[in-house]
Design goal:
- The complex is a heterodimer of chains A (about 375) and B (about 200).
- With about 375 residues, chain A is mostly beta strands.
- Chain A has 1 helix and 24 strands.
- Chain A is elongated.
- Chain A is about 5% helix and about 65% strand.
- Chain B is mostly helical.
- In chain B, about 70% of the residues lie in helices and about 0% in strands.
- Chain B has 10 helices and no strands.
- In chain B, helix 5 runs parallel beside helix 7.
- The longest helix of chain B is centred in the middle third of the chain and has 22 residues.
- Chain B starts with a helix and ends in a 21-residue tail after the last helix.
- The chains are: A mainly beta (about 375), B mainly alpha (about 200).
- Chains A and B meet through strand 1, strand 2, strand 3, strand 4 and strand 5 of A and helix 3, helix 4, helix 5, helix 7 and helix 8 of B.
């Protein structure tokens, strides 16, 4: 236990250390209605209030999540978790991470659950994917009974064109209970819609239940700081937090403290067909904007089967500049730009003008997007 | 009224005569854009960004009224940026300031930046716009840029922006994806899970 608290303290101290890289705080509040049927019980309705707060800074974060549910019976449930994480500086492709979390839950007149968990992970990070392995230690208590928690987890993840994929395997021991979870998860964001889901199987279990489970959710942004969240599925017994397996459907209104971020995409599916056509000709293209000396910017577009690739911007009076074709579907061009902020767009084979993926994108006032470049 | 219309048309005609690039615009947009350019010039605002916005709309085949509306909107943003940054602000600073305002920064933040930094504000304003446009809360982005703007070089600010994007923007970088979204059954915050779901009978 002292080691766990040392990890918590270390994480907190590290995050609180003054630095030139400041953090930011974001929060959400979910107000929802649920219908839930726990295994062995009748279906019941519940109203829920679930706030969450997240503080990010380079190299770490702290999150706090809570949930209050009031069931049809009048019984009430409270849950809360506080998690902190810090990362080591990258060493080539390796990176370490320490997580610590504390949480508690209570329901009606039952004894409350408390848990304190520390975890260490080692990441192998690639450009669009990675692996990590982690070990967990902690303690869970139910009423006056304390149970040690240990675990080992290995996971892999990949990121492709707005879709994040995960897979993990976990072996956990909670007192006399032992179980293994094998899970796969996916997250996709397209415009105002975020789809998330995971599926898993609990196997090699002693006292933790068995079977398959899975949950899914759709988050539709209704306006800048308001979203509709629909979710449902089945989840397994959680011996750490004291919840039993069940099924549920839920609808909630989510309020954001700030507008949700649009992910920065490194690779975009490009529609190379002319504007107004059916867009049947598609190809993956990657644009790199590389600043060179003397305020020259080199554009690199990788699109294997293009016939013509052009760039245009305020630096060219918005006249198209054809890029030169190199080997392996690479198109390049160097453009001199004055110091300041520039707007730029790329066109492939006479298709619509698009923001290059290597630049920040902004609404262009013409129902499209434009790339923003800063030349210092 | 008729005199004013004639006067405006005269000015617009003069502006077109002085700026051959206006000939690239759709004929329906040419005169209104020229009038906006002339008004901006008379007000001491930079006209090049306005002209560039019109040319951008033209190359993107935007309807003439959309082109004119975009140019007018930018002129308004440039005017607000100058109010915040002062009459001595350089054209590039005004353009960057207009982008920051459009992204959600307040005029007060722009004025604070002006007071905090003696060097040109173009890059700090662009970084501020980048951060805000990426979803970083305006207050956080402003305090970050303000803290750095008084003492660091432009290149450092750009590197700072990259670092923030890399480490903070969810889903923006492999490292973030690995840390913010990687699943494990021992960490309730890691796996996709609706905060509103019921977890306990």
């Amino acid at each position: 236990m002292p080691r766990v608290w040392a990890a918590v303290l270390g994480a907190a101290c590290s995050l609180a250390t003054p630095s030139t890289a400041p953090g930011q705080t974001t929060a959400t509040l979910d107000l929802g209605m649920s219908s839930v049927r726990y295994d062995g019980f009748l279906r019941s309705g519940a109203a829920s209030i679930a706030p969450s707060v997240r503080w990010d800074r380079p190299g770490g974060y702290v999150t706090g999540q809570g949930a209050y549910l009031r069931f049809e019976s009048g019984n009430q449930s409270f849950q809360g978790t506080l998690t902190g994480s810090v990362f080591t500086a990258p060493a080539h492709r390796w990176r370490g991470q320490i997580l610590a979390s504390v949480g508690a839950s209570s329901y009606a007149t039952f004894a409350s659950f408390h848990q304190t968990i520390g975890e260490a992970r080692v990441h192998l990070v690639g450009e669009r994917g990675g692996l990590w392995i982690g070990g967990t230690a902690g303690r869970a208590s139910f009423g006056g009974a304390n149970r040690p928690i240990t675990g080992l987890a290995v996971a892999a993840w990949a990121q492709r064109s707005g879709v994040q994929l995960f897979a993990s395997a976990t072996r956990a021991f909670v007192g006399d209970t032992a179980y293994s979870d094998i899970e796969a998860a996916a997250r996709s964001q397209r415009g105002t819609l975020i789809l998330e889901g995971y599926a898993g199987a609990r196997v090699w279990s002693r006292g933790g239940g068995r079977g398959v489970y899975g949950e899914g959710s759709a988050t539709l942004t209704l306006s800048g700081r308001l979203a509709l969240v629909l979710s449902g599925g089945r989840y397994p017994t959680d011996p750490i937090r004291g919840s039993i397996s069940g099924r549920y459907v839920s609808a909630a209104i989510r309020l954001y403290s700030v507008a949700p971020r649009r992910p920065v995409m490194r690779d975009l599916p490009w529609d190379r067909s002319p504007a107004g056509s059916d867009g049947s000709v598609g190809s993956a293209a990657l644009v790199e904007v590389l600043a060179q000396g003397d305020r020259a910017v080199r554009f690199v577009v990788r699109v294997p089967d293009a016939i013509l690739v052009e760039i245009a911007g305020d630096f060219s009076d918005w006249r198209p500049i054809p890029l030169g074709q190199g080997p392996d579907g690479v198109w390049e061009g160097v453009v001199r730009m004055s110091r300041g902020v520039h707007r730029v767009a790329v066109r492939i084979d006479g298709g619509p003008w698009r923001a290059p993926a290597g630049a920040r994108r902004a609404d262009d006032d013409f129902d499209g997007e434009v790339g923003i470049l800063v030349v210092p | 009224m008729r005199f004013a219309a004639v006067l405006a048309l005269t000015f617009a005609t003069q502006a077109q005569a002085q700026e051959p690039r206006l000939e690239r615009l759709d004929s329906a947009a040419r005169a209104p854009v020229a009038a906006v350019l002339d008004s901006a010039r008379a007000a001491g605002l930079p006209v090049e960004p306005l002209l560039q916005r019109a040319l951008e709309g033209t190359i993107k085949h935007a309807a003439p009224d959309r082109v004119v509306a975009a140019v007018r909107r930018l002129a308004g943003d440039l005017g607000r940026a100058r109010e915040a940054l002062g009459v001595s602000a350089a054209p590039a600073e005004l353009e960057a300031g207009a982008a920051a305002l459009r992204a959600g920064a307040s005029p007060a933040v722009l004025a604070q930046l002006r007071r905090a930094r003696r060097q040109p504000l173009t890059v700090p304003l662009a970084v501020l716009a980048d951060l805000v446009a990426s979803g970083v809360p305006v207050d956080s982005a402003a305090s970050a840029v303000l803290m750095l703007a008084g003492s660091v070089r432009d290149a450092d600010l750009i590197e700072f922006r990259r670092a923030v994007e890399r480490d903070i923007a969810l889903g923006a970088s492999p490292a973030t994806a690995a840390t913010a979204d990687a699943p494990t059954s021992l960490n309730a915050t890691a796996r996709p899970r609706s905060a509103a779901q019921p977890r306990r009978p």
